[in-house]
Amino acid sequence: MENNLTDNYINNLFEFNKKSLLSKYRYMHHFSYIRELMICNDKLEILPEEIGNFNNLERLYIENCKNLKELPKEIGKLSNLEVLYINNCKKLKELPKNIENLSKLTIIYIKNCKSIKNLPNEIGKLTNLEILDIENCKKIKELPKGIFNLSNLEVLYIENYRNLIELPNDTNNLKTLYIYFDNLTKIPNEIGNLINLKQFTVRCDRLKKLPKEIGNLTNLKKLNLECKNLKKLPNKIYNIYNLEKLTINSHRFKKVPKEFGHLPNLKELTIIAKKIKKIPNEIYDKVEVFNIFEIPKYKNLNSKRKIRFNKKHKIKIYETDRMGIEIAIIKNKTNSILNK
After folding, report:
1. In this structure, what are the phi and psi dihedrals at residue 309, rounded to the nearest 5 degrees?
2. Cα dihedral sign for 43, 46, 50, 51?
3. Which residues pair with 286 in a beta bridge?
4. For residue 77, which of 52, 138, 169, 170 is within the disulfide window of CB 3.0 to 4.6 Å?
5. E strand map for 167-244
6. Is 239 in contact with 263 (CB distance < 8 Å)?
7. How far apart are CA 135 and CA 157, in angstroms?
8. Which neighbouring-strand residues pair with 202?
């Protein structure tokens, strides 16, 4: 076997069998060029310490190891690791604190690890970290304060924490923020400190309002609000003059403000709301792509008068009523729509 294992031809190692996984560690000195390691084994309870010998490893994927309880501290020796992906390791309780030694780490994904209660504060020492994605780890109560020091963090994705007390406010490079929480009723005012944010998605069914500080996000280009109980938007939202794409999905949203038409760069607007009865004409005059879903009646569309659109418009109207769904698409040239 030793004669067949050559450094020059092994770049990836995919492991699915516990026996083969452990046996190959005996030949670790042959794997110095391994760049990517995938471990997928539902019977594996602990990773061998020898994993620390993969000194050129760049990407480590640990997935569906449902009985894995801990990661060895030797992971801290993977000085060239850039991507750490851990998914569906339901018994894993924590990450090793010496994760701070992984100075080249740029991406961390932790998903569906339901026994993890805390993230190590040492994550804040990963100065090259660009993407932090924590999904469906329901025992985690709050973000570690250490991540507030991640000056190069660009994407933060957090889902299903029990409590979101703070948001990082010193991450000047943060460009994308996803917040998905079932029980969240308030977004911290610190959201307004993320002045370089370009894309913000919030999916919180119990959220009824947004903080006025959201108006400080003047560099925001995409805003996606999937909040079923959201009633209205703060007036300060009209300060987001770089906003290009806005999506609102709410069962309680009753009025589309005409001020949307005053957002100078708004190009695409999507409204999913059953209680809206009227769309201001200023909206039609402004946006190029307008998607309307689940709105049963529009006073200004059900009237006998025509509504005109310029050649740039692409309007999709999804009208739900007793007769089913009606779709109208207006595009390509000067058009008008008339409901009789």
Report:
1. -130, 145
2. positive
3. none
4. 52
5. 176-180, 199-203, 222-226
6. no
7. 7
8. 179, 225
Amino acid at 43: K
The residues with which 15 forms a beta bridge, in sequence order, are 39
What is each CA distance from 91 to 38, 72, 86, 96, 190, in whole angstroms? 18, 14, 12, 15, 33
Bridge-based pairing of strands 245-249 and 36-39 is: unpaired
Confirm if 278 and 254 have CB atoms less than 8 A apart: no
What ranges do the domains of the chain cover? 1-173
Task: Compute the residue count for the chain.
Answer: 340
Q: How far apart, in whole angstroms, are the C-alpha atoms of residue 144 and residue 142?
A: 6
pLDDT at res. 271: 86
- Which has the higher per-residue pLDDT, 240 or 206? 240
**CB of 317 within 8 A of CB of 292?**
yes
- Residue 190's pLDDT is 83
Question: CA nearest 174: which of 149, 202, 151?
Answer: 151
DSSP string across 98-137: GGGG-TT--EEEEES-TT-----GGGGG-TT--EEEEES-
- In this structure, what are the phi and psi dihedrals at residue 263, rounded to the nearest 5 degrees? -75, 110
State yes or no: pLDDT of 323 exceeds 70: no
- Return the beta strands (E) in 139-260 as ranges: 155-159, 176-180, 199-203, 222-226, 245-249
What pLDDT is stored for residue 13 in this prediction?
47
C-beta of residue 108 within 8 angstroms of C-beta of residue 130? no
Contact 113, 89 (CB under 8 A): yes
Burial label, 33 (beta-carbon count in 10 A; 0-12, 13-18, 19+):
middle
pLDDT at 73: 92
What residue type is 264 in one-letter code? P
Which residues lie across from 321 on neighbouring strands? 324
DSSP string, 264-333: TT--EEEEE-SS-----HHHHHH-SEEEEES----TTTSSSS-EEE-TT-EEEEEEEETTEEEEEEE-SS
CATH class of 1-173: alpha beta
